[in-house]
Amino acid sequence: MRARHLLLAACAFLVACQREQRDLRTDPPVAEALGQVAVMPGGIGGRPAAIDRALGHPYQTNAYQLNQGKRLWDWFNCSGCHAAGGGASGPALTDGSWRYGPDMVSIFVSIRDGRPNGMPAFRGKLTDEQILQLSGYVQAMGAETASTAAPSRNDTMQARASENRAPAAAAFPKQVSR
Amino acid sequence: MAATSRLASCLPALLCAGCGGWQSALQPGGEQAGHLKVLIQLFTIVCGIVWLLVMLVLAAGLWRRHSGTPTGAAAERRSARLVGAATAASVLVIIGLTLASYVATHGLAAAGADPLVIRVRGSQWWWEVTYMDPSPDRTFLTANEIHVPVGRPIRVELAASDVIHSFWAPNLAGKQDLIPGRDNALSFTVDQPGLYREQCAEFCGLQHAHMAMLIVAEPAASFDAWRDGQIAEPPAPNDAEQAAGRLVFTGKACAACHTVRGTPAAGTLGPDLTHVGSRRTIAAGMLPTTRGSLAAWIADPQTIKPGNNMPMVPLTADELNALAAYLASLK
Amino acid sequence: MGPQLATAQPDPGFSRLDEITVENAGRLVPAWSFRTGTPGAHATAPLIAGDTLFVLTPFPHTLFALDLTRPGAAVKWRYMPPPDRTADGLTCCDAATGGLAASGDRLYLNTLDGHTISLDAAGGQVVWDARPAHPQTGETLAAAPLVAGNRIIIGSAGDDAGPRGWLAALDAATGRQDWKVFDTGPDAEVGIGEGFRPLYDPPQARDRGVSTWPPAAWQQGGGGLSGAPVADPALGLVFYQTGHPAPWNPDQRPGENRWTSGIFARDAASGAARWFDPINPHDLYAMGASGGLLPTPDGRLVHPDANGFLYVLDPATGKMLSATRFLPVNAARGIDLASAVPIREDRYVTVQDRTVRDICPAWPAGSNAQAAYSPATGLLYIPAATLCMDMAARSASYIAGTPFGGADVRVKPAPGGEEGALIAWDIAAGRAAWTVPERFPLRGGALATAGSVVFYGTLDGLLKAVDARTGRGLWQFQATAGIVGRPATFRAPDGHQYVAVLAGAGGLTGTASAKEIDVRDATAARGFANALRTLPPPQDRSGTLFVFRLP
Q1: Cα–Cα distances in Å, from C37 out to C344, C369, C382, C482, C542?
Q2: Residue B1 confidence class, pLDDT cut points 50, 70, 90
Q3: What domains are defined for chain B?
Q4: CB pairs under 8 A between A and C
């Protein structure tokens, strides 16, 4: 009897074995639906795709998706203009100030369609899903509050406090030049 | 009954079938691999003999326990001499094997005179290959397939862009790791023309098993012809379908990650596709290169090789057809 | 007919005016100021022609003509070329923002977004408007045009995005393109023919602009114009520095990467190449051949390069006469004068996927420091950045219209802790006569006068005057923003000598326009932010022209 209880108790540890879901493949209809964001006139703000809500906003809450965004950040030359978020020829993204708003739809639209003043459009260079991964990472990069999901640390140069340590904006006392 | 047991005794021999062919250390294709094969044989024979001797002594010991053990000072001295001799023999055997191992492997890193330098960079989960040349306009990029001339020393410089991989072409050389931020190199010479297979030998993630490369060893003349062909830009599309495919390639997301020289596509995130049609396989040794397999790969790369970095780019059936025709034409 | 303006292209680094001297410079007082209302790096020196002072603001540009005959220098006219805002995303960390030149009664204006515009100096009317550069491909016009006879010589910039660099001549009267030659590619496009006499390339070799690159890499190889071109009317030549090859990651472009990161001499009439000196072949640190070219009265061409060596060249043949270290350098042991190339230190050679630390100097060492040569003292005044850097090269993918870089960079002070210095260099002796250490890197130019005073500005907004012979501080003035342009001096209609300087540094780093930079990221602004973490923010984001006189 006692042994059986112990065994049952041991089973409770198995709960911890749940690994975070990695969706490696998105069904084409879902992928198509993901791009259907409703954008306010003026290109700032809007409503995310219904499917994104139905899936539980994976591009903001899933560490794998955020990590994919972090890889795309370097691969697609974002760092060429925005460095590791501190900005160069493009504006800083870690300073908590957003020219076009901090919501996913605005960031998504900025990447997909570009913005005046030099932000190129990545429509046709990235798929909608990749743009969402990137948007999630960009949002996390400039977040003011902590989140349970974060990408992993850099492999090479540690240019700033890593995303999994604390929200970038809170990691250091603010000294931002604009 | 007798037939069954005879069959069963033959079963282990089946395992040896795996030792033949294009990915086997027992069929060396060159000098260094030959040394390694001798080393393997030496180790196997010596260790086999040692094992047999140990088993015999063990059996003798068990037998003598049954028949009673002699005691006394003389017996003690005899056993001490026996143990001493066995220890000395073991040390000699180990020293001998160490020397043999050193002699066979220390030459592996040093290339002979005038080596052909090939830089291999491992990424999850494919191999980027750069053929180096003193004249920079004769360097070129390819992926997942290397051609080497028979008889000329080859020096493979190894690097990794993400995690640790390992370069292992058993017919040609031993294993060598590709470590991010470190330079490693491996040298070998191929004597036997033929097709060899190389495989990542360090677990590197989800598709580690699908990270292979073909090595084509050919006579110097045909190697030079291949090399000149790779340096040249690919032929222009020769029909309307291929031309349409080229437009799809340069206009869609393909061009952001892949290069086809002679077109505006100059991305370096994925394999260089300038001469993809001339390679025997796609997706790092997974599929033979055919128009059909190219189309299947582009249509759904995440089903064929889940987790790889190629996204599923939405294309219409016509676009997909034309694109596959164009890529297959890049000889 | 407009008013006759002063002659073209006086040496902007030296002025023959001598009313302000070592004795009285300490008494300089502000005469008047003019607020431009534009944020960003005001890197173009005020241009004085006749009775008018011209101020060019950074992109999106406004050109002001200020009337020096009226009290407070009232605005005579202003001109705002319609901007193509795409160009905003193409300049990062150089204070390079187009430029202005005057000749006769015409002004020639290069805008960052690729226009070359000829204006009537008297009234500001557009005479012609050409668009030789296209920001969509990453090209900009970052330097001032050079007026050489009846030609306007311009060159493209924008190496960080990879477009092929070129130099072109426009007809001064019509703006039509006279010739255009590239800095990479086949000889026919580079303007290499019979008259090309390279001292440091094999004389018979053909198409080095192709054969020193991996196949097709020269097509995205950068190598635009770095700094402003210089003319030698006696030789009929134009000299210019070519920019760095693209991408930054050198492992992606094995070879010497001709004709980037070197100095070209071309025939001003045809653009045909005469000689080429490789300064940083196979450029490991994206330096280009920046730092300025100065003809000296004794017939030499002096080039203080970002790599930390000061070169003296023979302008007729390109022969390298000497190369002396003037900055803290560890990346090269010296320059081999026989082959003209740096002898590199292996441990500072950048390799893909590896962080190489403490490379000296850092890339910003020569980007905008316009040195001044004074014939009065025989010294060269170099506003220097004494910086080192960590660099991690990584694979860069060419995606048209996005930066083609492939490097994370962190810039820091050189050993010793000071980030800048004004170096007075004795060219003949090959050593510094004196040095004034500065807390921050110097990004503006120096101005030497016949009164034996040297003026220069700092990133924390000080305009300083020092004794040209000793470096002793004479006077300083706290401006409302950092100074990244060269001071100018002129004799006003009232007969007195004035000194003018534009303050306005663009965010914190002297970046081209008003950028938002977060200094908590050590790689921000190509790592430059890391060196400027302690730089105080400007009092005024707008640029301001300050003009001084003796009381």
Answers
A1: 46, 25, 30, 15, 5
A2: very low
A3: 22-56+82-232 (2.60.40.420), 240-328 (2.60.40.420)
A4: 153
